[in-house]
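Q: For a teaching handout, I want to show students what a protein-ligand complex looks like in token form. Below are the inputs, and the small molecule is zinc ion. Please produce the holo structure.
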Amino acid sequence: MTELPGRRLLLVHAHPDDESINNGATMAMYAADGAHVTLVTCTLGEEGEVIPDELEHLAPDREDLLGPHRIGELAAAMKELGVTDHRFLGGPGRYRDSGMMGAEQNRRPGAFWSADLDEAAAHLVAVIREIRPQVLVTYDPDGGYGHPDHIKAHRVAMRAADLAAEPAFRRDLGDPYTISKIYWNRVPRTTIGELFRRVEAGLDRTPFDTTATVSDVPGVVDDERVTAEIDGRPHQVRKEAAMRAHATQVSIPEGLGVFALSNGLAQPMLPIEYYELVRGEPGSAYEKDLFEGVQGIDDSNGIQGARA
Ligand SMILES: [Zn+2]
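A: Here is the structure, written as tokens, with zinc ion included.
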């Protein structure tokens, strides 16, 4: 068996860029702190809209080369975050971006949305049984905002967590393993409201004309649903650089704490990232470390070791 650090974190995302926008600070923090961080991305994001004019030729209705290009963007982003273990579910290009809900691409052969759930989950079971992460991070059942690939990523992650623990399931994929804690990405409504007011007030210092709204942000919930936060402010610069590496999808001016997707609407970057624990025991009433309370971690350099 491979020697892995004591703390192991697995994140499951739909497209390249989702990981940096949602969890970039968390990933940078744990990677810097010696934990093993594994990212599984389910599609290449082939249906994304392309922001820079000079790359528009990559778009799906033109050369359809956005997927391979985004493999490179993701690799560059992971370099910024210090994450070396990043994989695509079933290998690069196994599942294709399904486009927005209701688009004809949803049902296209190979589209992630129309993939068999257990078959897709089995690819992730192999990763879970190999890495044995104590903590899994993914989206809520709505995928945060209703995108079919995000909903499917949620379903695959939750299903794989169950199947990985099932002794009778596919022993060829490794020994059964139970993940201790599962979190969904969240954003507290009050916090994001305040951040939007700040973006609004400083909008004239940004290259953007208009702001997005709270309803454009995935995973927003009433504050009391949020059970954990990772203060990634020391890693904000790395998160920003990782987001910038996804240049076809994100435009982000330096050091202003704002960014825009292809709609050009300014929204706040979140250097503190928020989570809801949905499976497993919380280490405290409001956690500041996703590994809080996890038993049997042997990692003398890590956060847990330092606190022990
Ligand atoms: Zn996405």
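A: Two things your students might notice: The CA atoms of residues 31 and 275 lie 18 Å apart. Confidence is low (pLDDT under 50) at residues 302-308.
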